[in-house]
């Protein structure tokens, strides 16, 4: 050996080194084994063995002291948590976490009794992985926890499922099995003589809990019980203080209620006199009631229909109605505890709002009638002075000098839905009202006509008649919750500059828009919007303008342009292909080219016209466009 075995303290030296670095227990066998291997004298081996035993005892004592220091530190920390208690859940979680850490268990959890339900529920878990276990509830007297609660004594089981001392139930056993627990230690949480819950530590393997560990868990349970009791006392104190503050607040607010009511009356009166709107009323009441008041249009059903505001969730709703018709409601958000006087203020504001809405509706209906009369004159009276028409339109913020589109709109009722004459009349009235609102927002005109509605809308930069028709169909259909079909005319270019043909231009455009509606209905496209240009060759029959060049350009323009740019023969190939009954073999004979050449040209045509170019409807349009293109080319020559 490297050390002089005759020196004093030789046997203790290696063990002191091991103690200093906190070596594992098996490391203490190494000095004795090495001495035996080197043939040390018996007295040396005896001295080493004696030193090993002393070192192990010292190490165990040091480990025990460290364990006790950790326990005391955890208990002190828990006491500090209780001293600064702010959040009961946080304190209980800390207790359970420290219990699990110091006992070295895989799981720790705390259950509390629920006197109202007559059972026990899981309050805090640490290390649990099973959702079922975390939500389990135990009946009084059931499971290991029930045994602890009944006897007010700690209980420990090395193997839960093999222990007959407590009552096993399917629900509890299933939850424990789902968590995989085997060894469980439970200690009671007591307040005086009352058991309020149980604190547990558990492992997923068989294990014997030492007496010191049971005592330690009991100390944590005592801290948990104190934390719960302290939190309950704090809660009761806060409740009492809140009630006192509430009583004081009621006394303070009572004197201010009369002032708010008077202020609200003055503000509402001023709003009516200066012609304020419904949103001004909502803003004024918001300031008076110190809340958020919103006016919402629509039918709120029976809510407040009798003139009294009603509570809906956290809000108060006061119906705005007139003559049995509900126009909307004033909604006060976020004031569930409204004072009766403030409630009356909200109800009075609803009455003022209904009066303002009736006045606005009357003015709006008058303006709609004026707009409708102007449009009727544009469509029906060729002898009207165009300058006078322009002046009337300017007063309505409509510019007749700009290009316009005439749109015809109609509600399409399903064939299986039958309605009375009154219902049909109401539908036409709703359509006219919605069309008038849409026209006013776009500086146009609208009128009821021929069982539907007609609109005259200016074309904005980038607009097309087709896009405008689709937009109007969507907006009117959304407003009425019905299928509304809209047909658009071709653009009418500043007809107000003409004297004798003002009405004729609009009348022709209106007739074209109505023909477009009928075409959409025949094509099964009710509820859509379109112009003649959307309907292919059918649009040529509908439009008075006869836009043949436009139809040819939209249908085969890509192929014609390709031939002109590349010097190819795709148009001639198309004509031969259709003339041969769409047979590539006969097409190659007519063109005197190879069949692969025909296939390549047809593939190029497909890329230019789209994959559906050979469908029956597209093929018919393409053939017609080719004929028209051929005629126009011949005329040009």
Given as residue ranges, the uncertain stretches (5+ residues, pLDDT < 50) are 496-500
Mean of residue pLDDT values:
77
Proportion of beta-strand residues: 5-15%
Spatial ordering of strands, largest sheet: 3-2-1-6-5-4
Biggest β-sheet: count, sense, barrel? 6 strands, antiparallel
DSSP E strands, number: 15
- The amount of helix comes to 55-70%
Number of helices: 20
Structural class based on helices, strands and sheet pairing: alpha+beta
What separation lies between the terminal Cα atoms? 122 Å
- Categorize the overall geometry: flat
Radius of gyration, whole Å: 46 Å
Provide a compact summary of the structure.
This protein is α+β, with helices and mostly antiparallel strands. The protein is built from 20 helices and 15 strands. A 6-stranded antiparallel beta sheet has the order 3-2-1-6-5-4, with helices on both faces. It has a 5-stranded mixed beta sheet with strand order 12-13-11-14-15.
